[in-house]
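Field log, afternoon session.

UNIT: design team B
ACTIVITY: writing a sequence onto a fixed backbone
BACKBONE:
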């Protein structure tokens, strides 16, 4: 095998079908996933009044802590499931603006060791499976690398495309082949048109090259938008979760022929300026806006919250159990209170 570019081949990664056969979804969970997929689809399409809450750590770096967290989440879910639809955020790929630093469990199953992508693929698949087995939840993850989507497509009930990826053609085309909801974040510039263009592309039929195949996709009508705030040319955060922002998005949706107009509000990132406790106030404001506008109530289908066991964040190697090693997260005590309060308010 000859490459013109300066790529050093480390090892061949098994095909998705090989990994799936070795680490299959148990038959007992296959039907459960179909039921959860339908629940999430019904929220996005407006056939359900439940409020979607995608919640979990910024990065799922440690399986023991993630399982502990999701088991706690499952207990709260029993109290709120009539009003909220909780999908654990189990994000295993982390975008890095400079290409350096911890890139998630896919790259480093152990954050303190060197990159090992094969071990990482196995580790992230197993972690998602173990969350399903232990809690009955199906999970959400970010599609950072479109070519890896087949490794988890039989597990995930929700997929997000990040602010740095939303303008990428391959992300848009691959999203058009998913049969679960895909959320397109606004780019870091905050341009709503870019975000909506990605929804148009993903809702459309497509033909393209994917993993050495020529493929066709039917389009994904469950593709929708995510508002996560923006950053201006001076590096200042510009939130876009306010009443006026959502109304502007509602009007822009109305000008386009798109199926299932919907938005999820990301309460962290540039909306909170990564001040993790602000997520509580932001979620409450979003619920208030829904109560004061039929248009907003119809458009806003849920929120994203970064939450873990311990509040804040730490550096890799500090060893604080259940604390984020990337962006700071809401702690468990505040997260539980917020979920219970949300169930009262929606």
């Amino acid at each position: 095998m000859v490459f013109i570019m300066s790529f050093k081949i480390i090892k061949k990664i098994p095909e998705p079908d090989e990994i799936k056969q070795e680490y299959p979804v148990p038959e007992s969970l296959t039907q459960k996933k179909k039921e959860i997929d339908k629940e999430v689809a019904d929220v996005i399409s407006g056939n359900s009044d439940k409020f979607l809450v995608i919640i979990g750590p910024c990065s799922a770096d440690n399986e023991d802590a993630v399982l502990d967290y999701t088991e706690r989440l499952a207990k709260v879910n029993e109290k709120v499931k009539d009003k909220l639809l909780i999908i654990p955020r189990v994000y295993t790929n982390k975008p890095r603006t400079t290409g350096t630093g911890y890139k998630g469990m896919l790259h480093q199953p152990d954050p303190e060791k060197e990159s090992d992508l094969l071990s990482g693929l196995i580790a992230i698949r197993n972690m998602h499976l173990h969350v399903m087995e232990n809690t009955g939840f199906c999970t959400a993850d970010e599609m950072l690398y479109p070519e890896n989507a087949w490794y988890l497509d039989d597990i995930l009930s929700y997929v997000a495309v990040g602010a740095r990826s939303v303008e990428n053609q391959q992300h848009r085309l691959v999203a058009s082949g998913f049969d679960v909801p895909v959320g397109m974040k606004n780019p870091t510039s905050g341009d709503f048109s870019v975000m909506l263009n990605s929804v148009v592309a993903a809702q459309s039929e497509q033909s393209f090259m994917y993993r050495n195949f020529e493929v066709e996709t039917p389009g994904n009508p469950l593709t929708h938008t995510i508002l996560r705030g923006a950053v201006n040319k001076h590096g200042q955060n510009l939130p876009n979760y306010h009443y006026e922002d959502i109304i502007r998005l509602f009007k822009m949706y109305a000008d386009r022929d798109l199926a299932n107009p919907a938005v999820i509000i990301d309460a962290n990132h540039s909306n909170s300026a990564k001040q993790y406790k602000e997520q509580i106030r932001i979620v409450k404001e979003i619920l208030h806006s829904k109560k004061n506008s039929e248009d907003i109530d119809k458009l806003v289908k849920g929120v994203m919250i970064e939450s873990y066991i311990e509040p804040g964040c730490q550096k890799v190697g500090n060893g604080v159990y259940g604390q984020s090693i990337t962006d700071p997260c809401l702690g468990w005590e505040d997260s539980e209170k917020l979920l219970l309060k949300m169930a009262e308010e929606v």
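LOG NOTE: The chain has a mean pLDDT of 96.
NEXT ACTIVITY: expression trials, pending approval
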